[in-house]
């Protein structure tokens, strides 16, 4: 690149008018710089190209490589790339060594790298040097290895003169005889020196300088006769010219065009100057240099495309592997999803089994309680109780036979804050075996989840029930006993006496309900109440701030209703839909229940207490 062109400019744009426009367009479509033109390799390439023996090897490979039956295509850039290490392994050099040794000693090497030094010692080695331990081929520098190859080529030329003449005659028959001659493009003769410029087969411009021995003519006849009496070989011993300098001036069209322009500028208008005449002779070599340079740059572009294609193919294979991994991952996810669905189905079956066992246990407890009550009841009451038990038994058997009917309405109340009836978000859930409240499986502690997964007989208790149990142990137990069956028979309603036995009790307020009316207030302001009154005067008071309370109506018609209300100042109880009693009694439905009129036994007493205030000992009320 000349004239201070910017680095980003393509060197083809700086060519002179001697290069045609068509050639410029073709050069612009090729890479601006080859790998071999990298300045890193400048030193070693300069030594190679200025070595006359290396140049001889290159021209011999261009013209006479068929002498050793070598048919591979050749270009000077190929061998230079292998010598500099750009092309590794050196395929062409190994083939050249193998063919050369095979032609000289009729032996085909299996490994040129391992066997070539041994064969070189066999052909060129001296027995005395071998015994003294001379330097091997691998220990030589670059110039030494080039000299070994140069000597082997010389021996190949002399091995079979007939075969050599046959190869050379092919150029005579094809009118390419000029290719075998080393004819200078331009030469300058000055007394004892001669300077020559050559354009060889590699399209590179070379310079050679010879030095001749000066001819001394005796001035006196006596001296002349004295010299001719000496042997002729002594006279012609130093007569051969001496090669003073050999160097490569240009490689490629860009260096060649720049050199020609410099010669033109140095010659100026002096047409007889050597620089001007040299530039004129070199004008005829432009086509050869352009053709060679275009060919090697197109080859470099093709190699670049092949490397890119190989990269794309490798990337495509990698993409195929990634796609295969994604497909495999998707299949694993599908299998995991199917496994989760199976586990959820099994968990649902276990929940149904727990509900069935719970109903069976409740039925057993109810039967035992009925048998204990039947011992103290009259024959009429006993018959009525049997009918009620039969009705209850049929009801439970119907629910056991149709478990899906029970699942029509159920309460979801999880610790994560979601509280809704019949709530189902598709995640795994678990039901409490005490209150039938459902919660998320993932919201449970790790210990509970481990027990659910590994223990098929594990009975899950929700966080609310666990809290109630712990607080109930602190508050104590509340018992309500009756005055006896005699008093119940004598009076219209049950005379209930409340007996409260607790370790500690909060300040209390007693409210007496009036028959046929709903109590206007059951507790002090902001004081939560949760009472359940069962048959035979049993009072259960779970310590839980839930707005639910059950009332016993009368001994002869024991119905149990559940009412939900928010406790507050002067706020009445609001009855809601009744539920089926689990102990005994007649089934109550929305059709036969007329809220809010609820009948209470005479002198029924409700005890309100605050489980969250400090407790104090208290006796019977």
TrEMBL record:
InterPro entries: Zinc_finger_PHD-type_CS, Znf_FYVE_PHD, Znf_PHD, Znf_RING/FYVE/PHD. Residues 413-466 form the Zinc finger PHD-type domain. Residues 1-21, 320-402 are annotated as: Disordered. SUPFAM superfamilies: FYVE/PHD zinc finger (SSF57903). Keywords: Metal-binding, Zinc, Zinc-finger. Signal peptide: none annotated. The keyword Transferase does not apply. One of its GO terms (molecular function) is zinc ion binding. Residues 364-384 have a biased composition (Low complexity). Residues 10-21, 321-352 have a biased composition (Basic and acidic residues). It comes from the Eukaryota. This is DEKNAAC103673. It comes from Brettanomyces naardenensis (Yeast).
């Amino acid at each position: 690149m000349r004239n201070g062109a910017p680095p980003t400019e393509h060197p083809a744009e700086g060519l002179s008018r001697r290069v045609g426009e068509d050639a410029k367009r073709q050069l612009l479509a090729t890479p601006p710089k080859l790998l071999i033109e990298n300045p890193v390799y400048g030193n070693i390439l300069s030594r190679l190209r200025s070595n006359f023996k290396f140049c001889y090897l290159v021209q011999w490979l261009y013209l006479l490589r068929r002498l050793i039956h070598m048919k591979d295509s050749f270009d000077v850039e190929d061998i230079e790339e292998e010598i500099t290490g750009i092309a590794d392994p050196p395929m062409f050099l190994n083939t050249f060594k193998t063919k050369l040794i095979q032609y000289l000693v009729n032996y085909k090497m299996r490994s040129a790298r391992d066997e070539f030094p041994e064969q070189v010692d066999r052909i060129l080695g001296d027995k005395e040097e071998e015994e003294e331990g001379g330097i091997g081929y691998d220990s030589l520098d670059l110039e030494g290895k080039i000299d070994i190859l140069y000597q082997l080529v010389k021996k190949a030329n002399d091995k079979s003169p007939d075969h050599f003449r046959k190869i050379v005659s092919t150029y005579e028959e094809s009118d390419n005889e000029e290719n075998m001659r080393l004819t200078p493009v331009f030469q300058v003769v000055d007394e004892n020196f001669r300077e020559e410029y050559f354009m060889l087969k590699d399209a590179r411009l070379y310079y050679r300088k010879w030095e001749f021995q000066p001819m001394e003519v005796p001035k006196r006849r006596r001296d002349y006769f004295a010299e001719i009496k000496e042997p002729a070989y002594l006279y012609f011993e130093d007569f051969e010219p001496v090669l003073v300098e050999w160097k490569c001036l240009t490689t490629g069209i860009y260096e060649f065009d720049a050199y020609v322009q410099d010669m033109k500028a140095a010659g100026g208008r002096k047409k007889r100057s050597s620089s001007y005449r040299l530039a004129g002779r070199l004008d005829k070599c432009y086509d050869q240099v352009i053709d060679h340079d275009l060919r090697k740059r197109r080859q470099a572009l093709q190699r670049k495309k092949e490397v890119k294609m190989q990269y794309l193919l490798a990337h495509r294979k990698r993409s195929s592997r990634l796609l295969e991994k994604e497909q495999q991952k998707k299949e694993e996810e599908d299998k995991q999803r199917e496994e989760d669905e199976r586990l959820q189905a099994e968990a649902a079956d276990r929940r149904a089994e727990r509900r069935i066992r719970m109903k069976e246990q409740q039925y057993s407890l109810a039967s035992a309680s009925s048998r204990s009550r039947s011992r103290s009841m009259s024959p009429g009451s006993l018959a009525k109780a049997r009918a009620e038990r039969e009705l209850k038994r049929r009801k439970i058997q119907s629910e056991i036979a149709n478990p899906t009917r029970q699942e029509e309405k159920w309460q979801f109340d999880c610790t994560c804050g979601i509280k809704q009836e019949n709530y189902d978000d598709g995640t795994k859930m678990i039901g409490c075996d005490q209150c039938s409240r459902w919660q998320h499986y993932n919201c449970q502690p790790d210990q509970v989840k481990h027990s659910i997964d590994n223990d098929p007989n594990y009975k899950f208790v929700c966080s609310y029930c666990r809290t109630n149990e712990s607080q109930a142990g602190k508050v104590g137990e509340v018992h309500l006993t009756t005055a006896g069956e005699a008093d119940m028979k004598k009076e219209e309603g049950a005379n209930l006496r409340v007996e409260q036995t607790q370790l500690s009790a909060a300040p209390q307020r007693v409210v007496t309900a009036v028959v046929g009316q709903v109590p206007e207030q059951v507790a002090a302001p902001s004081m939560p109440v949760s009472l359940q009154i069962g048959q035979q005067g049993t009072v259960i008071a779970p310590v839980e701030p839930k707005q639910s309370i059950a009332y016993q109506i009368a001994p002869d018609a024991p119905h149990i209703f559940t009412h939900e209300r928010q406790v507050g100042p002067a706020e009445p109880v609001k009855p809601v839909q009744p539920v089926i009693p689990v102990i005994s009694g007649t089934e109550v439905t929305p059709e036969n229940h007329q809220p809010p009129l609820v009948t209470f036994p005479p002198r029924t007493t409700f005890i309100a207490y605050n489980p969250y205030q400090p407790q104090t000992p208290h006796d019977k009320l």
